């Protein structure tokens, strides 16, 4: 099952997040909120070895280490991994693709993946790979963006041109289907942010590397005219520009 309508440009993903590394933690408030909630789902699990799959700057790798756990930080972007290493966020660092983990079967106790799997081509394949490297009795914790995320921005862009500007996100039913072979539970939440103008809104997406990163995406300059047209077309709430994220949290139990 493909997780997106178009293939994900993995090289573009790595480059975009690598460029964002230096300022990522300043702007990545959504990631911090969802990661905190995801960590709360651990329910006192005693597992010692944690794989932070898609570790980014190592923000949550460090949090896991503070709990006395041994952490493997994995990321596709060398820039992110270098940032995590500089902060001494983990015990081990591994540059690699979450869809093809370079780890042995049953080698970790907890897999933690916060807002990463939406960048992958095949969600069920990713979950199977995380399940493979997790020991029996372990947990796989993940969060992902679902269809409906950024719908306000998509609506505004549709009034400006016919290009695809927003990444494709899975419907919640397809996320549920991808988990059907595992004992699991899913939680769905909406996170909403507000901006005074379009530039900081777009900057928040660029700052976390969340630009349109699918193969065949349209390249083009953001001219002043297009920016003005986008802001004029954007739906407003109390003079603010809202931006919504539909987030699905998953807990998979490794039997």
UniProtKB/TrEMBL annotation:
Has keyword S-adenosyl-L-methionine? yes
What are the recorded Gene Ontology BP terms? biotin biosynthetic process; methylation
Please name the Pfam families in this protein's record.
Methyltransf_11 (PF08241)
Q: Which CDD domains match?
A: AdoMet_MTases
Keyword field: Biotin biosynthesis, Methyltransferase, S-adenosyl-L-methionine, Transferase
The Enzyme Commission number assigned here is 2.1.1.197
Q: Which residues form the Methyltransferase type domain?
A: 51-142
Catalytic activity entry = malonyl-[ACP] + S-adenosyl-L-methionine = malonyl-[ACP] methyl ester + S-adenosyl-L-homocysteine
Annotated metabolic or biological route of this protein:
Cofactor biosynthesis; biotin biosynthesis
Keyword check for S-adenosyl-L-methionine, yes or no. yes
- Please, which domain of life does this record's source organism belong to? Bacteria
GO MF annotation: an example: S-adenosylmethionine-dependent methyltransferase activity
Similarity remark? Belongs to the methyltransferase superfamily.
What this chain does, per the record? Converts the free carboxyl group of a malonyl-thioester to its methyl ester by transfer of a methyl group from S-adenosyl-L-methionine (SAM). It allows to synthesize pimeloyl-ACP via the fatty acid synthetic pathway.
Q: What is this protein called?
A: Malonyl-[acyl-carrier protein] O-methyltransferase
Species: Photorhabdus thracensis
Gene name as annotated: bioC
């Amino acid at each position: 099952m493909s997780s997106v309508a178009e293939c994900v440009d993995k090289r573009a993903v790595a480059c975009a997040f690598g460029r964002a590394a230096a300022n990522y933690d300043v702007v990545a408030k959504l990631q911090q909120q969802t990661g905190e909630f995801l960590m709360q789902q651990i329910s006192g699990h005693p597992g010692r070895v944690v794989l932070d799959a898609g570790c980014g700057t190592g923000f949550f790798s460090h949090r896991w280490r503070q709990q006395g756990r041994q952490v493997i930080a994995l990321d596709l972007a060398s820039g992110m991994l270098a940032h995590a290493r500089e902060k001494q966020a983990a015990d081990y660092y591994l540059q690699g693709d979450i869809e093809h983990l370079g780890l042995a079967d049953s080698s970790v106790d907890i897999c933690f993946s916060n807002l990463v799997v939406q960048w992958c081509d095949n969600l069920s394949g990713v979950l199977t790979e995380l399940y493979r490297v997790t020991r029996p009795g372990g947990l796989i914790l993940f969060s992902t963006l679902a269809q409906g995320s950024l719908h306000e921005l998509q609506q505004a862009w549709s009034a400006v041109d016919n290009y695809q500007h927003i990444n494709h996100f899975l419907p919640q039913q397809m996320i549920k289907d991808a988990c059907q072979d595992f004992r699991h539970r899913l939680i769905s939440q909406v996170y909403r942010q507000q901006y005074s103008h379009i530039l900081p809104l777009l900057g928040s997406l660029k700052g976390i590397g969340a630009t349109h990163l699918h193969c065949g995406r349209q390249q083009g300059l953001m001219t002043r005219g297009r920016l003005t047209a986008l802001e004029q077309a954007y739906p407003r709430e109390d003079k603010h520009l809202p931006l919504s994220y539909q987030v699905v949290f998953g807990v998979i139990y490794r039997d």
